[in-house]
Amino acid sequence: MASPSPYVPNSRSLDALTGASTYSGIIDTVFKGNEDYLENGGSYDDVQWVSIAYLQAGNTELGKKFYDIAGTAVDSIYCRGGLFWSSARDYKNAITNELYTTTSGYLYETTKDSQYLDNLNNTWTWLDSIGMQGDNGLFNDGLTKDGTCTNNGQTQWTYNQGVILVGLGYLYKYAKSEAAITAAFGIMDSIIENLTVNSGLREGCESATDLKCNADQQSFKGITVQYMAWFLTITSRDDGTKYSDFVKLQADKVLANAAKPDEEGVYSNLWYAKDGGAAAFTGPAQGAALGALVAAGSLNC
Asked: Alpha-carbon distance 85 to 95, whole Å?
């Protein structure tokens, strides 16, 4: 169930864009019946996708509930801070900590309880200092498990660059941190420079002729674009129109390259090039395409 959970917030955005009230109810379809896994499965990134979805649906109580589960992963000893990825408590990675900046910022905006702003500050300070970013400014997957807590050099997934932008946006908005804007602009510049082909986002596992991305990985680009748009909305800051133009361009790429020729409204994971035989027309790929289209639409409204 982890794959679709990042896209539940899109349903609320669709309601806002279309003026309908029919999409946001999907939150019950996705999460109901998965309570045991979410509450006891020890997956500290998954519960934060759920927390964000409930917060965007206006359910602060359930947003807090799943945020508090993630909070049990906070640890100040192993690697000197941050959150563990899972209840195995042996790995600290980018996405779990980046999500914690987002959920903390979102809860501060919702409740104005200073503990959440403190959590945002503390988590970003740790992320910024621990060396998880490579020389190109992009976040690798996480830290080594050998006790040295150094960058593990694993894949620089697109969503590991996108999710942190929202935390930085909230840090700017509520802590008045201009350094957060500088960091966010640097990350977005690195995305554009290093993670695109033909101006379209490309996951490292993607090829037009060889399908190597698993279901989760097919979802990542849409998260990236959605969180870029969210950052721009939170901060009202852009480098001219550079980053908003990039978000809108990704929607154009989806329409130009990912659309299934014989089935209207169905999209693949390939944005940067036409299908050469390896396009994946799957739920996660469709969710990613929807993320790009909704993100561009939100900036046009």
From this structure: 8
> pLDDT tens across 239-269, in order?
999 999 999 999 999 999 999 999 999 999 9
Q: What tokens does 246 get?
A: 């990039």
- 48-97 tens-digit pLDDT: 999 999 999 899 999 999 999 999 999 999 999 999 999 999 999 999 99
Give, as one character, the DSSP assignment of residue 74: B
Dihedral, CA atoms, 172, 101, 232, 205, nearest 10 degrees?
140
Q: How far is CA 118 from CA 172, 179, 211, 279, in A?
A: 13, 17, 42, 43
For 24, residues 6+ apart whose C-beta sits below 8 A from its C-beta are 11, 12, 15, 57
CA distances in angstroms from 220 to 6, 128, 262, 270, listed in the order given: 9, 22, 25, 12
Query: Measured between alpha carbons, how far is 172 from 50 in angstroms, rounded to an integer?
Result: 24
Q: Work out whether strand 200-201 and strand 196-197 pair parallel, antiparallel, or are unpaired.
A: antiparallel
- The pTM assigned to this predicted structure is 0.94
Which contacts (CB < 8 Å, 24+ apart) does range 117-121 have? Answer: 117/174, 117/175, 119/71, 119/74, 120/167, 120/170, 120/171, 120/175, 121/171, 121/175
Side chain identity at residue 296, one-letter code: A
Beta bridge partners of 166: none
SS3 20: coil
Q: In this structure, how many other beta carbons lie within 10 angstroms of the beta carbon of residue 137?
A: 17
- DSSP assignment of 95-108 equals HHHHHHHHHHHHHH
The token duo for 139 is: 């976040």
Task: Using DSSP, state whether 139 is helix, strand or coil.
Answer: strand
Q: To 5 degrees, how large is the angle CA 203–CA 209–CA 211?
A: 55
